[in-house]
Structures are given as structure tokens and as C-alpha cells.
Design brief:
313 residues; mainly alpha; Serine Threonine Protein Phosphatase 5, Tetratricopeptide repeat
């Protein structure tokens, strides 16, 4: 159920639909809603998990960890809750010093492995753990062989995602030809889903093949949409590459106008990225407008606060 704008539920007594709360454009409003539910029932594991995921969106890793730890403690057999706890530890690990990150990385591994052991059908938990095994060095728990085995396990449930996992593995191993072939297999197996085209475009960006990247983004715009996240992610790839800013602006605007926001692409972040695009083009007033729009939805999002202060000087 999609709730556009800042609309929230009528009463905290209403059962939480995580997908509803996590798709509300106004993160501040959603957090007030879920905090009211937690205040009313401290034992509501689902409410704690939803709060964690909202804090994750605004990159408040300490609150994300606190609420996800509570959710996992209240429902220790829930695979998804352990998966999100692992993601939250990972978010903090990316933003602290090396010594503190080392301890956190071990927690990431433990939570992802727990999520997989509890959820044999949790494809995303398998993908998260595979990504960990691919990216982490061996002395911190990385294991390319285990990543490959996870992809083989997932192939029976989601063949396209398994090809994506193998693509990431081959890319990390340095075999770009095999990686490219696996990314393309993911597209074909998925039935031409747009977000797998965006994954291929991201690979081309990392490989420095920027013309191929742009051509692939164009194909993604014509491909089948499962949801709007492909527009958001495609525009983000263009922003990261510093290419074709007008197309990126158009894609973010299309995403926002759809009012069908994915959890991985909250509306405030689309506004923030639009602000970044305008700022890079020297359009300070347009950038400030978008940063304010982001903060109107997520007032505690620090990057937007800093960006607005910067362009307002």
C-alpha cells in the first residue's frame, strides 16, 4: 500500500505494514508514527525493525543499530531482522576509523550468516552475505569460494539475482569479460528488468567504459520496470560518473513525480541528489531549493544540512 506525501496511519493501534511506512515520502512523519507505536508497545519487534530501516535511510547508524538490535533480540528467529542489523553494522563500519571498523565487520559477517541460516528463502540475505564474502579481505572473513556457493544456492530461487552475484564475484576476481557476461545473463534471465540494466551500467562505470555506461542507461530507461528504483539508480550512476547531468535530472524528476518510492530510493535522497547535480552545474539557487526539499522530508539528514549551508554562504 503506497501512502503518498507525508500521510501516516490514523492510530498507533493499527498493525504496521513495513512496506507502507517505508514508502512514505516524509521520513520525519514515518519516524514519529513508528516511535509512537514503540512507546505504546516496547515489545513490538516489527516496529523496532521499521524504525531501524528509517534511521538507515538517513544514515543515522547509531540509532539504526540500537533499534535493529532491539528487533533482533525480541524476535531472534527472524531472518530479515538479522539481515538489517548486519546492514546497520556495515553502514557504521563504512563511516568510522579502521580499528572500530574491524570489530564491526565481524558483527556484519555474523549477522548476515545468521540471516542466511534462519532464512533459506531469503534471497537478499544470501546476496548480502555473498557481497560481504566478495568485498572483505580474507583476514576479515572474506571468502570467494563461499560467495560462489551462495550464488549457486540462490540460482534455484532467483536465477537473475544469482547471475548478478556471480557478476560481482568475477568483477572482484578481475575477469571483466566473465563479469560482463554474467551481468548480461541477469538481464536476460530477469525478462529484461530495468534494474539489471542499471547494474550493468554501474559495472561499465567502474570499468571506465563511460560511453557504454550511458548507452546502457538509455536501454534501462526503455526496459521493463518492476518499480521506479531503476530510474533512481540510473540517475545516481550518471551523477557518480559526472556524465549527462540533464538526463540524470530528468530521471530523478520522473521518479519523484511517480510518487512510487522504493525503500532504497527515498524521496528526500532524490531531492538531495538533484541538489548535488544543480550545485555541480553552478546553479546555487536550484541546488538550495532541492536541499530544502530534502530536509522538509528528512530534517535530520546531515549531508543535506551541510550542503544547504554550503550553497547558502
Amino acid at each position: 500500500m503506497h501512502l503518498p506525501g507525508g500521510r501516516t496511519f490514523e492510530s498507533p493501534d493499527t498493525p504496521i505494514n513495513p512496506q507502507a511506512l517505508l514508502h512514505i515520502a516524509n521520513v520525519d512523519s514515518a519516524l514519529r508514527d513508528v516511535d509512537a507505536r514503540i512507546h505504546q508497545d516496547q515489545g513490538n519487534a516489527q516496529a523496532h525493525n521499521v524504525a531501524c530501516r528509517l534511521y538507515f535511510q538517513i544514515e543515522n547508524w547509531d540509532e539504526a543499530i540500537r533499534t535493529c538490535e532491539k528487533a533482533a533480540a525480541l524476535a531472534p528467529q527472524n531472518s530479515e531482522f538479522h539481515e538489517w542489523l548486519g546492514r546497520s553494522y556495515g553502514l557504521k563500519a563504512e563511516n568510522v576509523g579502521a580499528l572500530r571498523a574491524f570489530t564491526l565487520v565481524r558483527k556484519v559477517k555474523a549477522e548476515f550468516e545468521r540471516a542466511v541460516s534462519l532464512g533459506k528463502d531469503n534471497v537478499m540475505a544470501h546476496a548480502d552475505l555473498a557481497e560481504f564474502y566478495i568485498e572483505a579481505p580474507g583476514f576479515m572473513g572474506g571468502d570467494k569460494a563461499k560467495a560462489r556457493k551462495l550464488a549457486e544456492t540462490v540460482s534455484n530461487r532467483d536465477a537473475a539475482e544469482a547471475h548478478y552475484m556471480l557478476a560481482r564475484l568475477e568483477e572482484k576476481l578481475g575477469d571483466r569479460n566473465k563479469a560482463e557476461a554474467e551481468f548480461k545473463s541477469a538481464i536476460e534471465t530477469s525478462g529484461n528488468l530495468a534494474h539489471y540494466w542499471v547494474d550493468l551500467a554501474g559495472f561499465y562505470r567502474r570499468a571506465g567504459r563511460l560511453n557504454d555506461m550511458e548507452a546502457t542507461i538509455n536501454k534501462a530507461r526503455e526496459a521493463r520496470l518492476a518499480d521506479g528504483i531503476a530510474r533512481f539508480d540510473g540517475a545516481t550512476v550518471l551523477l557518480q560518473a559526472g556524465r549527462n547531468f540533464p538526463a540524470a535530472v530528468e530521471m530523478f524528476r520522473q521518479y519523484l513525480s511517480s510518487e512510487k518510492f522504493a525503500e532504497d530510493g527515498p524521496a528526500f535522497l532524490a531531492h538531495y541528489h538533484l541538489g548535488t547535480l544543480f550545485e555541480k552545474q553552478g546553479k546555487a539557487q536550484d541546488a538550495a531549493r532541492e536541499y530544502r526539499a530534502a530536509l522538509a522530508l528528512a530534517s535530520k539528514y546531515r549531508p543535506a544540512q551541510d550542503a544547504l549551508a554550503r550553497v547558502s554562504r
